[in-house]
Amino acid sequence: MKLSNRISTLTGDGDDGWALLYRARALKAAGTEIIDLTIGEHDIRTDPSILAAMNESAKGGHTGYASVPGTKPLRDAVASRVSARTGVPTTRDNVLITPGGQSALFAAHHACCDEGDTAAYIEPYYATYPGTIRTVGAIPRAVPVQADNGFQPTATDLAAARGARSLLINTPNNPTGVIYTRQTIETISQTVLENDMWLISDEVYDTQIWRGEHLSPRAIDAMAARTLVVGSMSKSHAMTGSRIGWVIADAPVIEHLRDLATHTTYGVAGFIQDAAHFALTDDPELERRVGAPFERRRKIAMDILDTQNTVRLIPSDGAMYLMLDIRGTGLSGDSFANTLLDHHNIAVMPGESFGQAAAGHIRVAMTVDDDALAEALRTLCAFAAGLLPEQ
């Protein structure tokens, strides 16, 4: 029997972008000690207080079917958080709770795109974006942005999105660590308005701001009605395995997304929602503590990278990643990352995993302890310097 075209072509050319990660994990499973800087998984785990709240809720009986759009207390807490952070009035009617940010991306594209529509996304991109678009029968279209402009989309770049039904952006950005400036957000908004598009804004790293500020496009005039914001507890509270996120949109959009959830996920476990509510309301400092190691490691990395001139750091103002320009070595990101793994047991992600706009770059996840990260970066820089042609 033949599988459906949609399920068998989700990854397009068959490459999901994670080949190096799989190779590093296979080496680790075989007993090789690997410094793994590939994936955005905290090296700390969910705070014990959140787990205690989850356990208490489960033991208290909140293990049956939960409200599909999300419990009222959690939707209220998310709405309050969004209102405070963006200045845009938001109520529970603007919130759908989802099983993580990935599910929210899936739902948002279902809301915006019909089968055969074109759905655009900024490149470099998080590796699941094109496949997520294909899940709804839409046609993915990359909108490449330039490394030499700090990966900030310009009006010229965004012209490639014309004719699309939706545009997906991500700020603070994975993989680059770039935060879009106000000018960039205003340019994106103008493009969306002029071309009558939906905007899907992935803001799962909105608590990890190391320099500058995050501006949600939903706060731009006339944009709230055509913007769907994706959020998550995964990065802000180290709740990656709990699978808890949300979509923020106008109330009529949320009503339709509620119908979609009824026919797909049927909501999120109540005890996980209760734990998320606890995390958002009990300790205002928790988000800062979760993000603090990455801010500290960014400074460690900058100090090390400042001592050499072979590897160039793309301005990394947010998130848990460093995007390093290694074009001076003459190698592609793929070749550099695979050779680094072979020779030094250090695993980083090739820029090409996130689209050709990031070719000649590598992404480093700051998700190991400070000393291990510093050791890996010094080794990486020395390795890069050794690749330079003799003068």
UniProtKB/TrEMBL annotation:
Instruction: Please list the GO biological process terms of this entry.
Output: amino acid metabolic process
What's the cofactor? pyridoxal 5'-phosphate
Family matches, as SUPFAM superfamilies: PLP-dependent transferases
Record's keyword annotation contains Transferase: yes
Where's the Aminotransferase class I/classII large domain?
33-379
* Top-level taxon of origin: Bacteria
Q: What is this protein called?
A: Aminotransferase
Protein's organism: Nereida ignava
Q: What is the lineage of its organism?
A: Bacteria, Pseudomonadati, Pseudomonadota, Alphaproteobacteria, Rhodobacterales
